[in-house]
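Continuing the series of single-chain predictions for the mutant panel. This is the parent chain; the variants come on the following pages.
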Amino acid sequence: MRVNRFVLDCNIWISYFITRKEQKLVDIIGNNDLAVFSCEELLEELNVYYIIHVLKSIT
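Parent structure:
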């Protein structure tokens, strides 16, 4: 049986966060019974983006 694999890199997550459609991405993952794997580097990149975004919004 062939298994399809998709990479949701940091740019995909950030795009959904910027457009405030992160729930749509969560729904796609849930509705298609997808397993999501992550790594420390991806989480760190998302944290850096979040910190930069927050700092820009308060300056």
